[in-house]
Design brief:
coiled coil
Length: 110
């Protein structure tokens, strides 16, 4: 069995002198247990509150990440469409330049 040390001030010690300490401890044990249960419950409730707050923060962060992802997806789709448009435009311009080159070569040859 482990050892328990109880520290008392002088007056309290003198008032307990001559009393049955074991009986006194047994009498007060239920109150002590109730106090410990209440303290433990309070500590657990505080922990639950902190965890719930952390959960709300994490849910907010997840929501922000979801919004960021959706925006990134829309941006990617826009950029893909823009790249395709520019590729086609570039192809058309290249054809026009080639045509113009041929026309100029024909003019210089004649």
């Amino acid at each position: 069995m482990s050892e328990i040390k109880i520290v008392l001030d002088k007056e309290k010690f003198k008032s307990l002198k001559g009393r049955d300490i074991n009986a006194l401890l047994r009498e007060n044990l239920p109150r002590v247990e109730e106090t410990l249960k209440a303290e433990r419950e309070e500590a657990l409730l505080e922990k639950i509150a902190k965890l719930e707050e952390k959960l709300r923060e994490m849910e907010g962060e997840i929501e922000e990440l979801g919004e960021f992802y959706e925006k990134a997806l829309r941006d990617k789709e826009f950029m893909t469409a823009e790249r395709e448009r520019l590729r086609k435009e570039n192809e058309e311009l290249r054809k026009k330049v080639e045509e113009r080159k041929r026309e100029l070569e024909e003019v210089h040859e004649s």
